[in-house]
Design goal:
Length: about 130
Amino acid sequence: MIKGSCLCGGVQYEYDGELTELAVCHCEMCKRAQGTPFVTNSPIKFEGFRIVIGKDLLKAYFSSEKKQRVFCFNCGSPLYSQRIDLPEVLRLRVGTVTSGKIPPPDYQQYCESVSDWFVLSDDMPRYIQNKT
Ligand SMILES: [Zn+2]
Ligand SMILES: [Zn+2]
């Protein structure tokens, strides 16, 4: 069982299943949609997904004709995307998961759009919580 929530907690969801595939997307639209250099998402079955509370807080933005990006309109958290020609699959924004097992990412896509100011490097110092 996967559980998750938006930042304000107004939207909470559950998924009766496992996250079996994790994709990191560097495309320009995902960057703007998340406000970050990439998004990490996981395709899940719409069937096993339910909004526990906050259905009325969901808002959908169609970033292209066939793809909606669904977010909490109170706090702005991106929750998932869904193609209208593939409604049985949601692409869950993994950063909103609050409990359940999250496997490591399987692949990166749109690598031609990787932000050149953001370097994923093993040599980069890593800190727990804030550097200060
Ligand atoms: Zn919210
Ligand atoms: Zn993308």
